[in-house]
Write a structure and sequence with these properties.
single chain, 142 residues, alpha+beta, four-stranded antiparallel beta sheet, 15% strand
């Protein structure tokens, strides 16, 4: 992750807990509660993951793809739902222009909304900066 991406990710994290009027004690209490919630979600995902086998497919898969199945197995339930939303939205974009490692994607309903994606086979970056902010592949990357 780039330095700018880390900074944006940290900013997005803190904006969930505080505003310009939040006191220091309230901030620490909110962070503590969020961390407890995160640990609880992780624990639940580990417990339910141990019950899965490669033969049994989870019923929560929407498009039934191997990518979605793998994401289900490695992500927490919260992260998986975010990933699923992005995976569903991916079908709403089409390839508009290709030049070398640069791809321009266009939203299907509009000529105005375009996103620039760079991909060289190893590293990918998108103009939406969603991955830098949330850590989940955006619909343009998918």
């Amino acid at each position: 992750m780039t330095t700018t991406g880390r900074s944006e990710s940290i900013n997005a994290f803190f904006k969930r807990f505080m505003s310009s009027h939040t006191g220091l004690a309230d901030f620490f209490e909110q962070v503590r509660m969020f961390r407890i919630f995160e640990i609880f979600q992780y624990f639940i995902s580990i417990c339910t993951q141990n019950k899965k086998t490669s033969i049994v497919r989870p019923t929560s898969l929407k498009i039934k793809s191997p990518l979605e199945d793998e994401a289900f197995r490695v992500l927490t339930s919260f992260a998986f739902k975010k990933f699923q939303d992005e995976l569903e939205r991916a079908s709403q974009y089409s390839l508009f222009h290709v030049e070398g490692h640069e791809f321009i994607l266009r939203y299907y309903e509009s000529d105005g909304r375009k996103h620039r994606l760079l991909w060289d086979g190893n590293i990918t970056m998108c103009s939406s900066k969603s991955f830098e902010l949330w850590g989940i592949l955006c619909c343009h990357m998918l």
